[in-house]
Design a protein that fits this description.
Radius of gyration: 40 Å
Distance between the termini: 56 Å
Shape: elongated
Strand content: over 45%
Largest sheet: 26 strands, antiparallel, barrel
Number of helices: 7
Mean pLDDT: 75
């Protein structure tokens, strides 16, 4: 090196031992000849030679460099000329018994005033294990216990003689055995470097120029204060950045680097390479010519289900979204990753940390060597801090064929929320024609967002659909909600009618025991869903709930609720009119329970409801239903006797009801009072035993149960049916007090219910593998209470002494094969009234087959359907998906399934093709709307892995219709498809 340079430390490194008689001669020659010529000074502190190599990273030192390379360490500060004398230091070490010197690679520290050495973790930015060794450092590392004490003592001797601390920047850890290093004789001893006793952190407030530079190359020369040139496999490291090239030029004053020939920049998980580059290191500003890039960076951890709050309570109920409650419950931190983007460009400009601007760029998320799809953009900007990318004059290519063009193309680099247009989609359906959707996502705040979608319906016009979501903390609790508004002005198929749909849900809980709920739904006309929706659960709706409720649970042993509820009734099919529901405006409910009140379990239910209903014409007949008020008071007292393995609970209660009525037929009484005493005894036992099935140990249980109920008969035929229906006959209902829902009917009873349950449990974790349930009710008197029938007209011919027999089985019957079977069987008539059989085979993700048969003989809700669904690979890349829900001969209580000859209720068929970094899906759906109408839709989607999708998205339809469906291209963590 030439020029006026003050050199603090030079390490001459060789991994070989040499005879002592040759050491002195070589050292004298080296000092007398080489040092005066080069103007360099050397210091060394060595001990006896070792038969193994010690990784300097283990000791907190810079690594040993490959033979034939020069190593230059630069600390850009200014030192007092009197602070250190290299030759004096060299002589001091010699007199102290350093004894051996080495030559080979050179380590140069160009310094001024001494500065404390930065820690490894602070300067390099990598995790550090014990002994200060960076995680992932390579090399042959000797165990700490094997290091000779003489070496340790020498490294830890008093460092007061050192006026300059060697920085502990780690750039590499390349070590080789002696026989693996060519080109160096055995005349030189292994390196022994001195350590300071402590690791000093850099002082606060230091600028970026205080960070050290470590340079490795085959040859290093130049003026150390003005310009340093490195040639041959040059590598420069500084504070988490690595720059490599065939030739590097570094200007210390400007803190600027230039690379020529295979230039490469690595920073975080981003890599840029090209034939030439130049940049300011700390400012991270510069350029690359003809670059190739790969950008992927780990962002900070984010959290889901975050609670937001203010520093102080505010009665408004709103809080600034940026205040994060770090003590939140029911939340977990998740780490995201950016979706990797790679490509090339004519020029790449570095505009600061994590900001890239490219000209004539091509980019994709496909793996290297696969360019099935890519975008070409005249200008491409990547902002890793905001996790967003933006292309201008962009064209999308698929299989080298241009597909579409966009003047502006914003896109995300992770699944983080950001405002902007989402990918457009389209769908073809028979009820709307061709539909094109363009959604815009608005990231209002971290705790609220909105999506506004413009949808062009070929048959109807333009539908504007907006959805707003929010979540926050107030009054010591939380609230959340969602609002949706759909507007279709001037529908062409309805003579220019303005059509709309509104949906609002809101729930809120406070710390003082209050909670509230709003669920409001309304549409402009009866055919809104059948005309504009492709979801069978929406098209089959006939009653839209409109409800508001507020509750108080702060009493501990009691709670109260005020409920306001009504329905919008949709007359979807004129041939099958729907009866209006009663309005409950209002309904007040009071519940209280003392589970240990003088040894009893005492409870009370009180409810007041005001019922109203408009007049209605059905089939040309005017229906003027009775309206009025109902008061229910129901005190109960139980005496539970619970012992290990068994329990008995007798209970008594008095059901009191008061009705005040108006309207209805002239024979309708205006006031009705009913008092019914209720007595029951519930008992059960639990047995367990060890069991072995298919070579595995399990715990098998047997749980018998007996339930006796006694309620006297009262004539209730004159009471209107406001909100009561016949409860479903199942295992939960046969152990209940009433076969009707709500309070307008209380069945008489003198009956005993017997049942048992057997479970197969995994003895290691208690997981339930199988469950078998059997049950039946035995009557000691006839049931005389019906919903509408005159009690004297009840079926006298039926076998009244026992109910239908219930049986149910669910669980795993074979590895990856599951079954769910239930039946309701009339033993006297030897007739199955209702049964359901379902199986599911799930050998692995991407392979699933479901089959089910459901039958119900009840004329009030007849059902006779078969249901098949599957996702199965046809070849290595091609998968078939589908579902067939077919209704056999049906008398038609449900509009969408009624048929005298059989019809398709819902059918889904499609294929998925996995192309590596893309997936193509084509799905067709057909669903029944009314008794005589159906709708068909077709979906096509091209999904670009971890980037975006083009077309109409059928994934929600597939997940809803195929139980166990999974994506054939499972997304990487943080991708858009999660």
């Amino acid at each position: 090196m030439v020029g006026n340079v003050r050199l603090n430390h030079i390490r001459m490194i060789s991994p070989f031992r040499i005879p002592l008689y040759r050491l002195f001669a070589r050292s004298v020659c080296f000092c007398l000849v080489c040092f005066p010529i080069c103007g360099w000074a050397q210091t060394a502190s060595t001990r006896n030679s070792l038969p193994f190599r010690v990784d300097p990273a283990l000791l907190g030192l810079p690594p040993v460099v490959e033979p034939g390379q020069a190593s230059l360490f630069v600390m850009e500060t200014v030192q007092s000329p009197t602070a250190f004398s290299p030759m004096a230091k060299f002589q001091e070490n010699e007199s102290a018994g350093a004894g051996e010197t080495g030559a080979g690679s050179s380590g140069v520290d160009i310094s001024g005033e001494p500065s404390p050495a930065p820690s490894i973790a602070e300067e390099v930015g990598v995790p550090v294990e014990k002994n200060n060794r960076p995680v992932g450092a390579s090399g042959i590392t000797a165990p700490e216990k094997d290091v000779p004490q003489a070496l340790v003592d020498g490294m830890l001797e008093d460092s007061s003689r050192e006026t300059s601390t060697f920085p502990e920047e780690i750039s590499d850890s390349r070590f080789h055995a002696e026989n693996e290093i060519p080109g160096i004789g055995d005349d030189f001893p292994p390196p022994v470097l001195k350590l300071s006793k402590t690791l000093a952190l850099p002082p606060e407030g230091n600028s970026g120029n205080d960070r050290p530079i470590f340079l490795v190359a085959d040859r290093v020369d130049g003026d150390g204060r003005r310009e340093i040139n490195a040639k041959g496999a040059a590598e420069l490291r500084k504070h988490g950045m690595i720059v490599t090239a065939d030739r590097l030029t570094y200007w210390p004053v400007e803190d600027e680097i230039e690379g020529e020939g295979n230039a490469r920049l690595e920073q975080g998980q981003g890599t840029v390479s090209g034939p030439k580059m130049r940049m300011k290191m700390d400012d991270k500003v510069g350029f690359f010519e003809k670059p190739s890039f790969f950008v992927r960076q780990e962002p900070k951890n984010t959290a889901v289900n975050q609670f937001w709050q203010r520093d102080e309570e505010d009665s408004s109920g709103f809080a600034p979204p940026m205040m994060i409650d770090l003590k939140r419950r029911n939340s977990r931190a998740i780490a995201q990753t950016y979706s990797p983007v790679r490509g090339d460009a004519d020029r790449l400009d570095l505009e600061g940390e994590n900001h890239y601007n490219m000209t004539n760029a091509r980019f994709t998320t496909c793996s290297p060597g696969n360019d099935d799809w890519y975008f070409k953009a005249g200008e491409l900007r990547l902002d890793l801090d905001k996790e967003r990318g933006r292309g201008k004059d962009a064209t999308f290519y698929f299989k080298n064929i241009p597909v579409f063009y966009s003047p502006i193309l914003p896109f995300p680099l992770s699944n983080a929320r950001a405002s902007g247009f989402l990918a457009p989609s389209f769908i073809t359906a028979s009820n709307v024609g061709v539909s094109v959707r363009l959604p815009y996502y608005w990231n209002i705040a971290p705790n609220m967002d909105a999506v506004v979608t413009s949808q062009l319906l070929a048959k109807h016009g333009v539908l504007l659909d907006s959805e707003f979501r929010y979540f926050n903390r107030a009054r010591g609790g939380i609230y959340r909600g969602q609002a949706r508004l759909s507007v279709l002005p001037s529908d062409r198929l309805r003579d220019g009618d303005n059509r709309y749909g509104i949906s609002l849900t809101h729930t809120q809980y406070t710390a003082d025991g209050f909670s509230g709920q709003i669920n409001f739904n309304k549409v402009s006309d009866n055919q809104f869903f059948t005309d504009l929706s492709s979801n069978i659960s929406m098209t089959s709706q006939a009653q839209l709930l409109q409800q508001a409720a507020i509750s108080y649970y702060g009493g501990g042993w009691w709670n109260a609720t005020a409920n306001f509820q009504q329905y919008q009734t949709l007359q979807v099919d004129s041939k099958n009119p729907v009866v209006e529901q009663y309005k409950m405006l209002p309904q007040f409910t009071f519940n209280a329970r003392k589970p240990d009140f003088y040894g009893t379990d005492s409870s009370f239910i009180g409810q007041y409801t005001s019922f109203s209903r408009p007049k209605q014409i059905i089939g040309g007949v005017l229906i003027d239903p009775p309206v009025g008020h109902r008061l229910v008071l129901y005190p109960q007292m139980a005496l539970p006797l619970v012992m290990p393995g068994w329990h008995v609970t007798p209970k008594v209660g008095l059901n009191m009801r008061r009705y005040s009525l108006s309207g209805g037929p002239a024979s309708q009484p205006k006031t009705i009072n009913i008092n019914l005493p209720v007595f029951s005894v519930d008992s059960g036992m639990t047995f367990e035993r060890k069991s072995n099935w298919f070579g595995r140990d399990y715990t098998q249980t047997l749980e018998p149960r007996l339930y006796y109920l006694n309620i006297p008969y009262r004539d209730q035929s004159m009471i209107p049916v406001f909100d009561t229906g016949l409860a479903d006959f199942n295992f939960a209902q046969i152990f209940s007090e009433n076969q009707f829902s709500s309070w307008d009917r209380i069945s008489n009873a003198n009956q005993l219910t017997a049942g048992f349950t057997s479970r197969l449990l995994d003895h290691r974790n208690g997981a339930e593998i199988m469950r078998l349930m059997l049950g039946q009710r035995f009557y000691f008197t006839k049931s005389r209470v019906g919903l509408y029938e005159d009690p004297t007209q009840l079926d006298e011919n039926r076998k009244w002494d026992k109910s239908d027999f219930l049986a149910s089985f669910s669980g795993q019957i074979y590895p990856r094969l599951y079954a769910d079977v239930s039946t309701q069987y009339n033993i006297s008539d030897r007739l199955a009234k209702r049964h359901s059989i379902g199986i599911r085979y799930l050998p692995e993700p991407g392979k699933v087959f479901n089959a089910a048969y459901r039958y119900n003989r009840d004329p009030a809700s007849p059902l006779n359907q078969v249901d098949f669904s599957a996702q199965w690979p046809i070849s290595k890349r091609l998968y078939a998906v589908g579902r067939l829900n077919y209704s056999l001969k049906d008398t038609g209580a449900v509009l969408s399934t009624a048929s005298q000859t059989g019809r398709v209720v819902q059918a889904v068929a499609g294929v998925e093709y996995k192309g590596g970094c893309w997936v193509l899906r084509g799905v067709m759906q057909r669903l029944a709307l009314t008794q005589n109408s159906a709708s068909s839709a077709f979906f096509v989607q091209l999904e670009l892995n971890d980037f975006a999708s083009v077309g109409s998205n059928p994934i929600l339809i597939l997940r809803r219709n195929i139980q166990g469906y999974s994506l054939i291209n499972e997304p990487t963590p943080g991708s858009l498809l999660e």
